[in-house]
Amino acid sequence: MSNPSPVSNESIAPSSPDAEPSRDYAERFVRSLKGPAQFLSFWCAIALPFVHLPLLAQGLGDPTVTLTFLLLLAANVLALYVGHGYNG
Questions:
Q1: Which pTM was predicted?
Q2: Residue 9 lies in a domain
Q3: Where is this region: Disordered (predicted)?
Q4: Is there a contact between 73 and 28 (Cβ–Cβ < 8 Å)?
Q5: Residue 4 lies in a domain
Q6: What is the pLDDT along the chain (88 residues), one digit of tens a residue?
Q7: For 82, left (φ over 0), alpha (ψ -120 to 50), or beta?
Q8: Looking at the domain assignment, is residue 36 inside a domain?
Q9: Which of 7, 15, 16, 82 lies 20 to 30 A from 65 at CA?
Q10: Is residue 51 part of a domain?
């Protein structure tokens, strides 16, 4: 017969059960932010085009104004994407 192994199976412990609650807490935290983030993004997507109007009325000849317009346009697209599911 063979000699018993000097290393017991008990020395290899499964992953700690404390990892699950912290992950659950993080998921609940992210879910709790989803609604307010969609709400804010939805209304920003509605309001941002009104900020574009004075820039367009002034003209986009100045590089600073053009850059500002493009950054606002990118922010509007991002707000539309994030807020598209609000109150659906």
A1: 0.64
A2: no
A3: 1-22
A4: no
A5: no
A6: 566 666 665 555 555 555 566 788 888 888 888 889 899 999 999 999 999 999 999 998 999 999 999 999 999 999 999 998 887 6
A7: alpha
A8: no
A9: 82
A10: yes
